[in-house]
Request: fold
Amino acid sequence: MPKRSLAPQRGFFPQPSYLIGTFKDDGTPNFALITWVTFCSVNPPILMFASRGKKLTRELVEKNGVFSANLVSTEMMYMADYFGNASGYNKNKCDDIGAKYIKGMVLNVPALEKSPWVYECAVIEMIPRNRGCIYIGEIKNILVDEAIRDTAYGKIDLLTVDPLIYAPGKYYKIGASIGTVGVSKS
Reply:
């Protein structure tokens, strides 16, 4: 297939969506939609997310040193869109849309009840970059919906989890499993 060159950009990188959760000083939860989330270590399990610009979530993660990464399911699209477009500086975004949360089981972080998979993370490093920062967090606990039966590596059924996929400007859902790793060796 013929190719053409594009200038370097961030225009296409489909990925799952996460709501990064922190508590304000008064105990009010705050969540922001972040789609730049990925793993960067296996042992110990570490994930990182990047955020740029002035955001309450960034300030709270830096101040508290902990955060939750709440996987967004397609059922939560309205929540993700609202949390991604509303500021938490002067309001309780959870109250605004009736989002229920629990407190983490290991860390003092908010976890959304509707999220099927929540990482509780402790910040181990912050890397400032231009107008943003890369936050690296060690996973201290994972909260998983009881509907997700098999949580072993490679066994998680993404159709059950139903993650919301973000590709700049649009949301998508996963349609079907089309193979397993190692099929090319047959």
